[in-house]
Design brief:
The chain is built from 5 helices and 6 strands. With 179 residues, the protein is α/β, with parallel strands linked by helices. The chain has a single domain, classed as Rossmann fold (3-Layer(aba) Sandwich), CATH 3.40.50.1820. It is globular, with a radius of gyration of 14 Å. The mean pLDDT is 95.
Amino acid sequence: MPPLLILPGYGNSGPQHWQSQWERVFPEARRVQQRDWEQPSLEAWVAALDAAIAACAEPPMLAAHSLGVSTVAHWAARHVRPVRGALLVAPPDLAQPNVPEVCRAFAPVPRQRLPFRSILVASRDDPYASFESSEGMARDWGCRLEDVGRTGHINSDSGLGEWPAGQALLRELSQPGPA
């Protein structure tokens, strides 16, 4: 598998989160570190992602969760470095009233077609985005949409463990051909 960059969202991903577990499963995985997980800065988060992609020996895979997905969309609107593919999990609708106020600085999220293969994974009961909002993001970004039913925000609370179904989607994206 190519290099794998893990992009957590607001607050980072704790030890039970599927992203943290993937760091143990995939030896080529590296978490994109942010200076401040609790006070996210759009410019700093995009710059950290760009530096991490630039440091990869070959085009990486991206596994983004929540505000990490918003970061990927902003990065793609500003940069042209090659990316092998992106698994975009539970992107927030930053207009939702229960989204933390500090995350609203990432709005508006660019909605242009992404220049790499991608799969957007959405839940039907995500407290930070309606399924219809996720469908719209997938359509605008040119992503295949994967419906994972009622799994909340697809985070530690969802009890996914190492999330084998997500790993299968990531492996699919790492292969040549359409997603």
